[in-house]
């Protein structure tokens, strides 16, 4: 991660800045077959406040301490689940996504968890391939717990194609390696 950025917990007031980051990051889907995602509404302030109350929000801030990226996580099937990871495209390709994942992994390890799971697209380079380079591996349907399966089914019900989605898992120790 470049030195002009810091990963930290947000203040409650900063939560209101996160939907704009999500909207900007969603624009990256426009040239893909999932362009419809760019029109989806971002997380609500109520949703973000829930993650905040669970201690499940991290932000990447620039030199002016303005949030430019964020991660949301919660506990699913007894392990850390990365619900969302967004970096404003103007600040992309600077290690912020990886830095946010490492912060979530460090928190999870401190809480006594061993793994992190997520759901992502299997056919977009900055999704599954990005996570695979960090140490995530694809899960079979049989390896997914009931809560992760329910989240995946919710994604499909919302319009995401089942064949394009993949559940992934990594050991927190692996994610904390440099």
How is this structure best described in words?
There is one protein chain. This protein is an alpha+beta fold and 178 residues long. It has one domain (6-175): Gcn5-related N-acetyltransferase (GNAT) (Aminopeptidase, 3-Layer(aba) Sandwich), CATH 3.40.630. 33% of the residues lie in helices and 24% in strands. It is built from six helices and seven strands, in the order βααβββαβαβαβα. It has a seven-stranded mixed beta sheet. Strand 2 and strand 3 form a beta hairpin. The protein is globular. The mean pLDDT is 94.
List keywords for this structure.
178 residues, Aminopeptidase, 6 helices, 33% helix, alpha+beta, 24% strand, GNAT_dom
CATH architecture: 3-Layer(aba) Sandwich
**What is the CATH homologous superfamily assignment?**
Gcn5-related N-acetyltransferase (GNAT)
Spatial sequence of strands, sheet with the most strands: 1-2-3-4-5-7-6
Distance between the termini: 11 Å
Q: CATH topology, which one?
A: Aminopeptidase
- Oligomeric state of the chains present here: single chain
General shape:
globular
Helix content: 25-40%
SS summary, helix count: 6
Note the main sheet.
Answer: 7 strands, mixed
Q: Give me the secondary-structure category.
A: alpha+beta
Tell me the number of strands. 7
Uncertain segments of ≥5 residues (pLDDT<50)?
A: none
Give the mean pLDDT.
94
What is the name of the CATH class? Alpha Beta
Report the sheet-strand fraction.
15-25%
Summarize the model shown.
By secondary structure, the protein is α+β, with helices and mostly antiparallel strands. The chain is built from six helices and seven strands.
